[in-house]
Every structure is written in C-alpha cells, then in structure tokens.
C-alpha cells in the first residue's frame, strides 16, 4: 500500500519598485513536474504588471515561464495555483531521463565546489557499507555538523561557506550533500519544490533537498534538513546542478529602482487516501 496525498498549492510572488523598471526578464520555475508518482491535476500561472513571452522545458526538463515586465509597471505579481497528487515512493525517483547525461551530475559549480571544508567534512565520515547506506549516513553527518539556522545564509552562499559557518537552511544542506556525494563519485543534483507541513498551511518558503543516483535504483531523494527521504508530502518542481538551475524565480533587470519583494505560499491537503501499489 502506498500513501497518496492530494495537495493544493498557492504561491504568490510580489515585487514593488519605487520607480518603473526600464526592462526586466524573469524565468519562473514554479510548475511541478508530472511523473509516474506525481500527477499535476491542475496548474495556472497568472501575471499582473508582466507579460508572458514563452514557455519551455530547460536542459533539466524543468517547466519554465519566461515573462517580461510591462512598461511603466511598478508592481508585478506572479500568482501560481494548482493541485497535485503525490504517491510515496520512499524517495526513489527512478532512472535518469532527459537531455543530461549522468556524468554531468558529477561536475562541481561555484555553489557546490569540492573545497577544503567539504574534504574536511568527509575526512570524519566512514565510507563503509552500500552506497545507499553511505548516502543516508552522509545526510545525517551533514546535519550534525551544520545546524539548521534560518537567516544566517542567502541564495549565494556556497557549500564551503555554509560548512565553515556551521549554520544553514535546506538550500545549504542540499548544496553540501550534492558537493560531498560528487566528491565520493556519486552523481547528485539539487531539487526545489513544495513541502506540506502537517501543522500549518502558510509556509515560510519553498523547500529544497537533494537527489543522488544509485545503481539499481536510479535517483533517490534525501531531505537533509528534516533527516528523511521525501514522501507524499513533497512536490518536486525543479532540479539542477545547484540552486541557480532550480530557483523558483531568476532573471535580470535594468535600472536603479529599489525592489521590495514579498512571497506568500500555502500548501494544504485536499484529501488523503491509500492506494494499491502497482505490481512489479
């Protein structure tokens, strides 16, 4: 029997500028991926003060909406809402598919560089047992050395910097795991998405975790910050080599206007039921 959850998500990003922005383009990665274990029942992206230009799948098969700011606009709102049904696969996603070869997920980036701090972290890590066992222990090892502490880091904080500070959030834990797994020769990637919290509807932010590719299983998820594998409460949205590939919003703008950003996010359960796991 596999647990299945029906989740409703409302994600609103608002920008206010003290003067009109001459030109801006934003890539929006907020649309969940439909997979065998995750069915997007409905999803809608609406815009105020901006215009949709094109939709496409990037190299990581993330759904991307490219939008531009309207002339003279000082308030821009990106509103996403939909419903997703997710089945619990104990974190097992399956084999690699799409445009990216597995060896690409061994490549380091500025945020996932294998530097002195990562090597120091691995020096105190016992690499015995199966690869899957090692990865579960690596997740716990990271949480022991880097406390979950909001407000100490930002999206530009690298794995090296987070380890040296001893503090971070889910994004930092994911970057450290990805860096360390790659250093151990295991392909790994960053994941952004939504997490349903049993005790609340309003969420502080989107969530982040990591996936590593294990022979015989394929991609397997690890939520380092919560010390568990993703289950039916997790909605996968975007993946990449690091945060920059999977950020909910990224882009560029011209001008000198000061920006005020506000994000509201709700994730709530619509139904919860048990379904029979497929044979095989």
Biggest sheet: strands, sense, closure? 5 strands, antiparallel
- Note the run of SSEs as H and E: EEEEEEEHHEHEHEEEEEHEE
Q: What separation lies between the terminal Cα atoms?
A: 13 Å
What is the topology, as strand order, of the major beta sheet? 3-6-1-16-11
Helical proportion? 10-25%
Cα-atom radius of gyration: 19 Å
The figure for the number of domains is 1
- The general outline is globular
Task: Report the CATH topology name.
Answer: C8orf32 fold
Q: Report strand %.
A: 35-45%
Which CATH architecture is right?
Answer: Roll
Number of helices: 5
Class by alpha and beta content: alpha+beta
Which regions contain 5 or more consecutive residues with pLDDT less than 50? 272-280
CATH top-level class: Alpha Beta
User: How many strands in all?
Assistant: 16
Average pLDDT over all residues: 93
Write up this protein.
The chain has helices at 116-123, 131-145, 159-165, 170-183, 243-246; strands spanning 2-17, 24-28, 38-48, 50-57, 63-69, 75-87, 92-94, 147-148, 167-168, 188-195, 202-203, 207-214, 218-222, 234-240, 249-253, 259-275. The strands form four sheets. A five-stranded antiparallel beta sheet has the order 3-6-1-16-11, with no helix packed on it. A five-stranded antiparallel beta sheet has the order 7-13-12-10-14. The relative contact order is 0.25. The radius of gyration is 19 Å and the shape is globular. It is built from five helices and 16 strands. Mean pLDDT is 93; it is low at 272-280. It has 280 residues and is of the alpha+beta class. Strand 8, helix 3 (159-165) and strand 9 form a beta-alpha-beta unit. The protein has one domain: Roll (C8orf32 fold), CATH 3.10.620. The longest helix is centred in the middle third of the chain and has 15 residues, at 131-145.
């Amino acid at each position: 029997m596999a647990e299945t959850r029906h989740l409703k998500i409302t994600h609103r990003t608002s920008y206010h500028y003290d003067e009109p922005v001459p030109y801006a383009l934003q890539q929006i990665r907020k649309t969940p991926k439909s997979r065998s274990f995750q069915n997007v029942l409905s999803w809608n992206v609406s815009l105020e003060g901006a215009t949709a230009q094109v939709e496409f799948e990037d190299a990581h098969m993330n759904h991307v909406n490219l939008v531009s700011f309207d002339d003279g606009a000082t308030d821009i709102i990106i509103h996403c809402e939909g419903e997703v049904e997710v089945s619990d696969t104990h974190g097992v996603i399956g084999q690699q598919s799409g445009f990216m070869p597995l060896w690409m997920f061994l490549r380091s980036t500025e945020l996932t560089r294998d530097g002195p701090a990562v090597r120091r972290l691995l020096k105190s890590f016992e690499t015995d047992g199966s690869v899957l066992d090692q990865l579960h222990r690596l997740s716990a090892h990271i949480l022991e050395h880097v406390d979950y502490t909001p407000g100490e880091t930002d999206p530009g904080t690298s794995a090296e910097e987070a380890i040296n500070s001893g503090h971070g959030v889910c994004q930092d834990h994911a970057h450290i795991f990805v860096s360390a797994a790659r250093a151990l020769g295991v392909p790994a990637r960053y994941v952004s998405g939504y997490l349903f919290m049993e005790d609340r509807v309003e969420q502080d932010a989107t969530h982040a975790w990591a996936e590593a590719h294990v022979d015989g299983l394929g991609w397997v998820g690890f939520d380092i910050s919560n010390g568990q594998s993703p289950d039916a409460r997790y909605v996968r949205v975007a993946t990449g080599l690091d945060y920059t590939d999977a950020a909910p919003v990224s882009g560029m703008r011209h001008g000198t206007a000061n920006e005020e950003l506000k994000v509201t996010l709700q994730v709530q359960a619509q139904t919860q039921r048990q379904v029979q796991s497929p044979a095989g």
